[in-house]
Amino acid sequence: MNPWGPLLLSVRVALIATAISFVLGLLFARLLTRKTVRLSFLWEGLILLPMVFPPTITGYLLLLLLGKRGPVGSLLDQIGIHIVFTWPAAVIASATVSLPLMYQNCKAALLGVNRRYIDAARTLGLSEGRIFRQVIFPLALPGILGGVALAFARALGEFGTTLMIAGNIPGRTQTMPLALYSAVEGGRSAEANMYLLITVVISFALIAVVSVCQKRAAK
Amino acid sequence: MMWARFQKQFSLFLLKVDFKSENGTTILWAESGAGKTSILDCIAGLRRPDSGEIRLDETLLFSAEKGIDLAPQDRHIGYVFQDYALFPHLSAEGNVAIVLPAKEKHEARQYLERFGLARLKNRHPGELSGGERQRLALARALATKPRLLLLDEPFSALDLRTREQTYREFAAMRDELDICTLLVTHSKTEADRLGQQVIEIREAIGPQGEYEHLAGQFPGGGSYES
User: Fold this and answer.
1) Can you give the pLDDT of all 226 residues of chain B as single tens digits?
2) Domain-located, residue B195
3) Is residue B174 part of a domain?
């Protein structure tokens, strides 16, 4: 069994999932850190649920939602799109479980920007949109990047939710964590050790990214 | 001319403000903790008074009665904070350029030159001295071509020797610009040297025994003697 197939699939899935949760996480953090949103605790709760849910429960919920008879799945079925048990389903699973991490890091980073810089920008005539793009975002960037690294790690390691909604189909939806499980189950220890080694290398690289980001954020 | 007459309740005291600021430099003088920064914040639109009116020339900036409360962006007031709040991720030039419209970005260099910062244009605020930071904050505020300039203890972060020189520079700049300026200070020396009109904040006890801080011009001096 070639270990690079599951690794490449995992990286592809995790990169796309991280991109999605970056956009959504930053957007939600921006919207919910401004006071004007009603029932913000409810929205925030919805975003954070996958963090406390058992991953298989999150997967089951997604299955109910995206399955052929689910509210979203039936609509997609009509235009000939089947998501369940395809690799895009793995992307959805990874994005869902990494979104809470991304959201929380983005929120902390945005709230951590000194209020006085925003006040100064307002008296200097900058529009709220420009203040976000040119003042808040660059100042919050180290914290946001820390969130990106954590979300990527979470997406890369996704197991339970992915198994429920994307399955464990070798060559199609078998990501690295699932391949590791199959390798151990099938007694293929050389392959399993290979996955272990790859995971250790990637994890150390991500920890390094996070700690550099935190150091820069602390400045 | 700027005219402020408003009240705002704080946890420890009620702030009552009533003064006019003519062209030239008006000093807002008080010991620290009297709500000086809050007064500037209200005028700049960063805080909202509970009642009253704030007027700049013919423009009503705030009126509780008429429900007017212009956004800080629409007040055209330059505000130099006590800690300057220079954008730490931008160079000196970037700090000035960010406030200029796209077509006028090149003018940032001229503002830096005028404040003797041209050769430091690529430095970030963290790499500038206290005096340089202060001049950069002033250059940035003036680049917006404000109708009123608010200065919150602009000299307090400077050491004594720099301060002397900065007083002279400030007086020269003020005469050249002819801009209406409201300067907050707790230093009497500064009030005496720079002020053409002095507004004082006094503590008082209100009718129900509550603490009040009154900002206004008090005939016959009092605790402030010019």
Assistant:
1) 899 999 999 888 899 999 998 878 899 988 767 788 999 999 999 999 999 999 999 899 999 999 999 999 999 999 999 999 999 999 999 999 999 998 888 889 999 998 889 999 999 999 999 889 999 999 999 999 999 999 998 888 778 877 888 888 888 877 777 788 999 988 888 888 887 788 888 888 888 878 888 888 776 544 444 3
2) yes
3) yes
Q: Do B81 and A114 touch (CB under 8 A)?
A: no
* Torsion angle defined by CA atoms of residues B152, B74, B3 and B136, in that order, rounded to the nearest 10 degrees: 20
Q: Token pair of B26, please? A: 């008006």
Report the candidate in A109, A121, A124 with the shortest Cα–Cα distance to residue A30: A109
Which of A121, A122, A139 is nearest residue B89 as measured by Cβ atoms? A139
Chain Cα centroid distance, residue B223: 23
Cβ distance B164 to B187 under 8 Å?
A: no
Substitution target from A35, A118, A122, A123 for chain B, most B beta carbons within 10 A:
A123
In this complex, do B79 and A120 lie within 8 Å of one another by their Cβ atoms?
yes
Q: How many residues does chain B have?
A: 226
CATH number of the domain residue B203 falls in: 3.40.50.300
CATH of domain A4-218: 1.10.3720.10
Closest Cα in chain A to B144: A124
User: Whole-model pTM?
Assistant: 0.87
Element (H, E) at B79: strand B77-80
**Rounded to whole angstroms, how far apart are CA atoms A1 and B72?**
64
Cβ contact B181:B149 at 8 Å: yes
Q: Do B71 and A139 touch (CB under 8 A)?
A: no
In a 3-state reduction of DSSP, which class is residue B83? coil
Instruction: Answer whether A92's CB lies under 8 Å from A162's CB.
Output: no
Task: Quickly count: other Cβ atoms within 10 Å of residue B71's Cβ.
Answer: 11
